[in-house]
C-alpha cells in the first residue's frame, strides 16, 4: 500500500494486463443490451469477423467469457482424448502451467527442454521437436503444444520453425500454440504458420481488461474435435461456432467486453497490424538498449528470439528483484512484473505492450533507473539516455539534424 497519495496516473507496466486506452473504456461504458436481440447480432458478427484479421485467419475464432487459462483448457479438451501423449516445450512458467493443466486433464505430456533455467532463456528448439517426432514412428503423440510469447521470460519462439519441424518429420500431430501475450503485439499468422489451435486472451496486446479469451481453430482441429473424448461442455466448439454464424452465443457473452473488443480491433486495424508490430519492436529495442547500458543482463539470451512485448531484467547476485519492484512501486507508483516460478526474485519484467508509446516507455525506464539506484544496484551507465538515443536514431518520421 502506498503511504502517500500519488498524483497522476498509475504506471501499469506489467506484461499484461496492459493499460486500457480511454477510448476502449468509453466504448465499454455503453449500456448492456439484450444478447438475443437484433443489435447484438450485428456486434457479434462484427467482432467475430474483425478478430480473424488479428489472428490472420479465415477460420473460426471462438470467443470465451474466460481468462486465458480457460482458452488453454478449451484447446486441449476439444482436440484430445484421455491418456493422449502430447509434446510440450519448457520455455518458462506459462509453458509449465499449461503442462500441469494437461496432466490434470488426464493427458500424458512429455516436457522437452534444457536443464535448470537454461531453457528459460531461449525459445523452442524446433530441431528437438523434429527429432522427437521422428522417433515416434507409431504416431502416439497427438499434439505439439508451444508458447509463442513466453510472458515469464520475454522470449518469442519461432512458430513457423515448429510447423516446419512437424512437417519434416511427416508427423500428423496437431500444433497448439499459446499466444496469449503475443497477439496484436508480436507478428503472428495462424493460417500461414499452419497452427491448428491458437490460444489468446484480451488483456495484453488487445488492450482490453481481462475476461475474454480465444481459440482460433483450423479445419483439422475442428475435425479432431468430432472424435476427441475429453469431457467438455462449456468449452465445446461445435454449438458456439454454429450460433456464431448469426453473431450469437449459446450462453450470455461478455457484452461490454465485446464493445471494447470492437473498439480495440478498429484501433489496431486503423494503425495497421504491421505498424503495431513495428512499434513494439522499436520500443523493445529501446528497452533492451537501456538494460544493456545499465550493465544488467536480459533474461532472453538469444537475440533472435527477443520479445517485442516485454523485457526480463536479471538482477546481480545478492539483489532481490522483488525488493527492487516494491521500492519502485512505493516511490513512483509503477507496477513491474514479478519473476515467476524458477526465476522468482532473480529478475523483474518490464511490459512495453499494447497502448505504449515513446514517452510511456521513457517514463517507465526513468522509474526503473531511479529505483535501481535507490536500491543500491551499481549501474554501468544511464539506460534512459541509451533508450532516448535508440528512439531518436530509429525515429518514426524524418527529422531535421539527425
Ligand atoms: N499463457 C501466457 C503466455 C500468459 O501470459 C498467461 C497470463 O499471463 C496465461 C497463459 C494465463 O492466462 P490468464 O491469466 O488470463 O488465465
From TrEMBL:
Pfam families, per database record: Aminotran_5 (PF00266)
Domain Aminotransferase class V: start-end pairs: 49-293
Phylogenetic classification of the source organism: Bacteria, Pseudomonadati, Pseudomonadota, Betaproteobacteria, Burkholderiales
One MF annotation (Gene Ontology) recorded for this entry: alanine-glyoxylate transaminase activity
UniProt keyword terms in alphabetical order: Aminotransferase, Pyridoxal phosphate, Transferase
Binding site for substrate: 349
Classification via InterPro entries: Aminotrans_V_dom, PyrdxlP-dep_Trfase, PyrdxlP-dep_Trfase_major, PyrdxlP-dep_Trfase_small, SP_NH2Trfase/AEP_transaminase
Cofactor(s) needed: pyridoxal 5'-phosphate
Organism whose genome encodes this protein: Trinickia dabaoshanensis
Transmembrane segments: none
Family indicated by similarity: Belongs to the class-V pyridoxal-phosphate-dependent aminotransferase family.
Record keyword Transferase present: yes
Modification sites for N6-(pyridoxal phosphate)lysine: 204
Protein name, entry field: Serine--glyoxylate aminotransferase
Record Gene3D superfamilies: Aspartate Aminotransferase, domain 1, Type I PLP-dependent aspartate aminotransferase-like (Major domain)
Record carries keyword Transferase: yes
GO biological process entries: glycine biosynthetic process, by transamination of glyoxylate
Amino acid at each position: 500500500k502506498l503511504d502517500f497519495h500519488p498524483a497522476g496516473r498509475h504506471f501499469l507496466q506489467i506484461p499484461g494486463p496492459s493499460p486500457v486506452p480511454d477510448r476502449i473504456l468509453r466504448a465499454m461504458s455503453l449500456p448492456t443490451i439484450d444478447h438475443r436481440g437484433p443489435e447484438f447480432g450485428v456486434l457479434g458478427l462484427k467482432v467475430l469477423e474483425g478478430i480473424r484479421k488479428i489472428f490472420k485467419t479465415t477460420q473460426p475464432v471462438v470467443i470465451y467469457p474466460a481468462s486465458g487459462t480457460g482458452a488453454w483448457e478449451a484447446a486441449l479438451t476439444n482436440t484430445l482424448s484421455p491418456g493422449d501423449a502430447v509434446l510440450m516445450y519448457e520455455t518458462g512458467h506459462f509453458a509449465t502451467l499449461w503442462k500441469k493443466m494437461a496432466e490434470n486433464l488426464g493427458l500424458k505430456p512429455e516436457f522437452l527442454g534444457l536443464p535448470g533455467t537454461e531453457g528459460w532463456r531461449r525459445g523452442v528448439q524446433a530441431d528437438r521437436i523434429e527429432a522427437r517426432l521422428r522417433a515416434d514412428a507409431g504416431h502416439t503423440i497427438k499434439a505439439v503444444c508451444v508458447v509463442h510469447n513466453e510472458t515469464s521470460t520475454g522470449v518469442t519462439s519461432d512458430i513457423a520453425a515448429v510447423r516446419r519441424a512437424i512437417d519434416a518429420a511427416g508427423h500428423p500431430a496437431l500444433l497448439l500454440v499459446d499466444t496469449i501475450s503475443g497477439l496484436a503485439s508480436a507478428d503472428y499468422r495462424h493460417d500461414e504458420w499452419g497452427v491448428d489451435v491458437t490460444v489468446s486472451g484480451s488483456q495484453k496486446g488487445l488492450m482490453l481488461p481481462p475476461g475474454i479469451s480465444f481459440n482460433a481453430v483450423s479445419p483439422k482441429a475442428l475435425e479432431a474435435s468430432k472424435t476427441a473424448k475429453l469431457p467438455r461442455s462449456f468449452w465445446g466448439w461445435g454449438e458456439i461456432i454454429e450460433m456464431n454464424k448469426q453473431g450469437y452465443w449459446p450462453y450470455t457473452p461478455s457484452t461490454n467486453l465485446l464493445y471494447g473488443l470492437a473498439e480495440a480491433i478498429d484501433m489496431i486495424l486503423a494503425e495497421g497490424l504491421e505498424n503495431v508490430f513495428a512499434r513494439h519492436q522499436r520500443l523493445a529495442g529501446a528497452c533492451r538498449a537501456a538494460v544493456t547500458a545499465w550493465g544488467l543482463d536480459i533474461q532472453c539470451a538469444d537475440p533472435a528470439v527477443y520479445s517485442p512485448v516485454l523485457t526480463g531484467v536479471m538482477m546481480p547476485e545478492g539483489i532481490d528483484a522483488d525488493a527492487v519492484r516494491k521500492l519502485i512501486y512505493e516511490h513512483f507508483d509503477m507496477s513491474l512484473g514479478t519473476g515467476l516460478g524458477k526465476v522468482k526474485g532473480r529478475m523483474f519484467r518490464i511490459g512495453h505492450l499494447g497502448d505504449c508509446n515513446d514517452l510511456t516507455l521513457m517514463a517507465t525506464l526513468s522509474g526503473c533507473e531511479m529505483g535501481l539506484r535507490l536500491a543500491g544496484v551499481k549501474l554501468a551507465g544511464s539506460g534512459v539516455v541509451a533508450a532516448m538515443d535508440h528512439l531518436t536514431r530509429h525515429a518514426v518520421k524524418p527529422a531535421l539534424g539527425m
